[in-house]
Structure formats: C-alpha cells, structure tokens
Write a structure and sequence with these properties.
By secondary structure, the chain is α+β, with helices and mostly antiparallel strands. It has helices at 3-10, 59-81, 106-121, and strands at residues 27-30, 33-40, 87-98, 128-134, 143-151. Helix 2 runs parallel beside helix 3 (106-121).
C-alpha cells in the first residue's frame, strides 16, 4: 500500500506546504537524508495554533498543535521528494513547546507528532526524539517540530 493510500485510509489530507517565514529552506536533502526545518502548527482553517502550555493552553491543545506540525512535515516532505513512498525511516523529531518554566509535559505534547508518524509509516515511523520547553516560539505558536528522515533514492 502506498503512503498516499495509507493517508486516505486514515482520513488524512495534507495541508499546502507553508512558505518559509525567514531566510531558510523547508527541506534540505543531503547524504540520503531529508532535514526538515522546524514547522509551526496551523489548524485546518489555516490559522496558527497559538498559546503557552501551562498558562493559556493545555496538553490536549499541545498534542493537536504537534500533530499539525507533523502534518506540515509530511506536506513539506511530499513536495521535496515527490512521493512519501521515498521515506525509508523517520529518524528523529525535535519538538519545541512554548511553555511556562514549570510545565513538564513536553513529552506528552510531542506524542501528537510522534504518533502521527507511526500511524502513517508503521514501524518506519518510530523515531528518536527530543521534546523541550521554550520560553517563546515564532509567531506565538504553541509547538514547532523539525525532522530528520532517511530517504530512498
């Protein structure tokens, strides 16, 4: 089954890949790996998912935001690779959570993106990960996620 078929089976429609908001490119392919720049969270209507976890946002919103980042990672990969079937393995995700200093559930928030990768790619979607707190993120978003992905030629 192709990844596009898998996405359809899961009821997932990928968003339009976002344009960079500063001086970088969304994906760099080097040495058999795709390095995906940090992707911020945008909801189904195209609005940024904003908030600070531990203050005005809860873990459920954070997980939704992390999943949205994961969807944007997939959209960027599809644009860069032509097909998500070229993904051999999701190697690592970096999850950045806009949160208060006393917030400690960053790993739970990161699961929103991590679980998506496993749903889409199966065992090849299981990855290493860092989930860290940040005092602020670009555009006031709640979560940002970057990725390293092993690709097939």
């Amino acid at each position: 089954m192709s990844i596009d078929q898998r996405l359809s089976e899961l009821g997932i429609t990928l968003p339009e890949p976002a344009s960079p908001v500063a001086a970088y490119v969304p994906v760099v392919i080097a040495g058999g790996f795709a390095h995906v720049s940090g992707q911020v969270c945008v909801d189904e209507s195209g609005q940024f998912i904003t908030g600070k976890l531990g203050a005005d946002a809860d873990v459920a919103l954070g997980q939704k935001a992390a999943r949205a980042c994961g969807l944007m990672i997939l959209a960027q990969l599809k644009k860069a690779l032509g097909s998500l079937d070229r993904v051999e393995r999701v190697v690592k995700l970096g999850v950045f959570v806009n949160c208060t200093p006393d917030f400690t559930d960053q790993p739970k928030v990161g699961n929103g993106a991590s679980e998506l990768m496993e749903q889409v790619f199966g065992e090849a979607g299981r990855h290493a990960r860092a989930a860290v707190g940040a005092p602020s993120l670009p555009l006031g978003v709640a979560v940002e996620v970057d990725a390293v992905v092993k690709i097939r030629d």
